Amino acid sequence: MSTMVLQPGAEIPAADADPLFQGMRVMVIDDSKTIRRTAETLLKKAGCEVTTADDGFEALAKIADQRPHIIFVDIMMPRLDGYQTCSLIKRNQDFKKTPVVMLSSKDGLFDKARGRIVGSEEYLTKPFTKEELLGAIRRHVAREAS
Prior knowledge:
The chain is an alpha/beta fold. The chain has one domain: 3-Layer(aba) Sandwich (Rossmann fold). 40% of the residues lie in helices and 16% in strands. The chain has a five-stranded parallel sheet, sandwiched between helices. The longest helix has 16 residues.
């Protein structure tokens, strides 16, 4: 059995961390604290760096600082909904290529189409699984690599 020695201040790697996700900056925007915490926990265990926001206004303030590689945004939020948030992200020259994945408890064709119209790359229905979240990131990385 090998022994791992950590340097002072080094982080202990998550048991199920995938090298693909190491250093991946992900933002989760949702007005539900439960959804934010669930997504944050799942993504951090995979090795992602996660920033959360509880509405579109808070998210827009954080995006420029955090520069996420991918953004998950809830559709139904107060003040600035997910469609408006996605549209504003995609209109910004610095972030128009950042993938945005819409999150919704509704699985309707209209909602998915509206998400595409404002520029989202993908649509996940809540409740989502760890595999669905990580799959969306994998697809984004695959598109970037090609």
